[in-house]
Each structure stands twice: as structure tokens, then as C-alpha cells.
Specification:
Length: about 325
């Protein structure tokens, strides 16, 4: 039994396809298949049910794969020890970030981070929360930037800052006359929200105390969007209002900032966190990322205390 065989085993479990696993391991499929066959012969068990598409681990295979992940993670800690002794950070850092954070947070810190750590190759993917968590579990990603708390015991959450929600209101809407508003003034019939699957959508509905509801039709326009920028344009050109994260309005032109209205205290907040696997590696790289993000966030946001954090998942009305 070798570490290479265990890595191939984990790759097949992750991608559930021998050819795809081979590509990610930078070997040919026959080479990968031969090594796994040798491993099965040595152990005297069948690790995968090859008759199914996609391939699935057998019951004994699941247990062995779980232990293989522990063994590989522990072996990589040797590299971590060596890396920790080096003055300069290097290697690859794979980051997953949710779409309602990516365009506003990444530009704040990425340039300084790359300048300070020129030997680090950063790979960023925009993904939904559940996709990031899944890829963290399979160690396809090193770290996630998303909204918490998620209450998932397989991951570790490191809060970075607390970002306020703001309302973005068409000038002709009745609420436009107020500089700040209360959540109970929001009318769901006039509220534009993101598609299902976005945690931001769940939080917006929770602010309205309608965690299980969906937005109703807006006159004769039914627009399903996965982009906050699109929702902003609809508010500007059509009617109604939407809610936005605070970072998204920082660089907004003065003319459009007139459409931004804050919430009265206590403001609804979202907790933005750096999320890693419980047994995560690349600790020095991730610590450097954490420090750079915190330093890049505006002081008002950076110093804000955790108060009224809006739940990420659906809530029952009245709770």
C-alpha cells in the first residue's frame, strides 16, 4: 500500500469517474486503474462498484476511503512543517467565494495579497455556499469565503467581519422618502430577490420574517436573477426595492447612492467568515489571507460588533 495509491483512491471517490480522477492526478486512466486494482488485491476487498455510473464506493470502500483521507492529510502535514520554516510563502491557494461577496470583497485585498506573496498561486472560484462546503469536505478547495453560521460540524468558521444590509429603493417608491427604514416596513410584493440557492436570498426573506416565502410577481414582469447587479438595474429602471450587502455600495456613484437607505438600529447584519475543513492544511497561507482581508475592509465594518446577525437558512415565522 502506497500514498500514491491512496491519493488515486480518494480522487476516484471525489470525482466518481476513473478518467476524470486520472486527469486530476496527472496520470493515464490505465495507470490509475492498475494501481487501484493492486490495492484491492492487497487488501482483499472491492473498493468500488464499477457496474454503476457514476462509480460508487462499496460499504467497506467507504470506510477505507475515510481512513485514506486521514492518512493523506497527515502525510501532507510534513510538507506543512517544512513550509512553515521558510520565510516566503509559496504554493497554490484554492479559494471558493459566494457570488454576493466575490465582486465586492476580492478586489479589496487580492492585489496587496499577491504583491506580498508573489510565490503563491491563487485560484478563485465563484460558487454557491453548498458547493463550497462540499468542495472543502473533499479538499478540492483550501478555503471558502462565505456567510455564516452554517452549523456544519465538518468545517471550521473563522468570522472576519460583520456587514450591514442596506435597502436600494426606486425613487418613486413610498419608502424612498425615509433616510432609514425598519424591516417591518418592507413589502414582499415590492421586493426583488435572488434565485433560490443563494444564502443572501434566505437572509433577505428572514429580515422580512418570511423565511419560507417566495417573492410574488411584480406586475407583468417576472425576472429570476442570480446577480445583485441585475436586481439593482431592475430597481433603477422599473420599480420596487431590493436589499444589498454594505460592501456593494461603497464605490457606488453619488447619483446612485441616493437610492441607498440604511436600516434603523439594530441593523440587520451578515457574518462574513473564512471557512476551512476541520483538519485544514496550509495554515500559514490561510492566516496571511485572513490578515489581508481584515486589513482591507473599511474600518467602520472591521470594528463593528456582532449584534443582530441574520440567519443564513430559512426560519419559521415568529422565531
Amino acid at each position: 500500500m502506497t500514498l500514491v495509491q491512496l491519493e488515486y483512491l480518494i480522487a476516484v471517490d471525489t470525482y466518481r469517474h476513473f478518467s476524470t480522477a486520472a486527469d486530476h492526478c496527472f496520470v493515464t486512466q490505465p495507470t490509475l486503474s492498475m494501481q487501484l486494482q493492486k490495492l484491492e488485491e492487497e487488501l482483499g476487498v472491492q473498493l468500488f462498484d464499477r457496474s454503476r455510473v457514476p462509480v460508487r464506493p462499496t460499504e467497506i470502500g467507504k470506510e477505507i476511503i475515510a481512513q485514506a483521507r486521514v492518512v493523506i492529510a497527515e502525510s501532507k502535514k510534513i510538507q506543512e512543517i517544512v513550509q512553515s520554516q521558510k520565510l516566503e510563502l509559496s504554493g497554490e491557494l484554492k479559494i471558493g467565494v459566494i457570488p454576493t461577496l466575490a465582486p465586492y470583497l476580492i478586489p479589496l485585498f487580492i492585489t496587496n495579497f499577491l504583491q506580498k506573496h508573489p510565490n503563491v498561486q491563487v485560484v478563485v472560484q465563484e460558487l454557491l455556499t453548498n458547493e463550497i462546503v462540499e468542495k472543502l469536505k473533499y479538499e478540492i478547495l483550501d478555503v471558502g469565503l462565505l456567510v455564516t453560521p452554517l452549523e456544519d460540524k465538518s468545517i471550521k468558521e473563522i468570522p472576519l467581519f460583520y456587514e450591514a444590509f442596506v435597502s436600494y429603493i426606486n425613487p418613486n417608491h413610498p419608502l424612498a422618502k425615509y433616510k432609514s427604514i425598519k424591516p417591518d416596513q418592507l413589502d414582499l410584493d415590492e421586493l426583488w430577490v435572488l434565485n433560490e440557492g443563494h444564502c443572501f436570498r434566505s437572509q433577505v426573506l428572514n429580515i422580512c420574517n418570511r423565511g419560507g416565502s417566495t417573492a410574488s410577481q411584480h406586475s407583468n414582469l417576472d425576472y429570476k436573477s442570480g446577480s445583485l447587479e441585475t436586481l439593482k438595474r431592475i430597481v433603477e429602471t422599473q420599480h420596487g426595492l431590493t436589499l444589498l450587502p454594505e460592501l456593494s455600495v461603497l464605490e457606488m456613484p453619488e447619483q446612485k447612492r441616493a437610492l441607498v437607505h440604511t436600516f434603523q438600529e439594530p441593523q440587520p447584519l451578515r457574518e462574513v467568515s473564512l471557512v476551512v475543513h476541520r483538519s485544514f492544511l496550509k495554515k500559514k497561507l490561510i492566516e496571511a489571507l485572513q490578515q489581508e482581508i481584515i486589513a482591507a475592509v473599511p474600518e467602520e465594518i472591521r470594528n463593528r460588533k456582532k449584534e443582530q446577525v441574520v440567519a443564513v437558512g430559512p426560519q419559521i415565522k415568529g422565531t
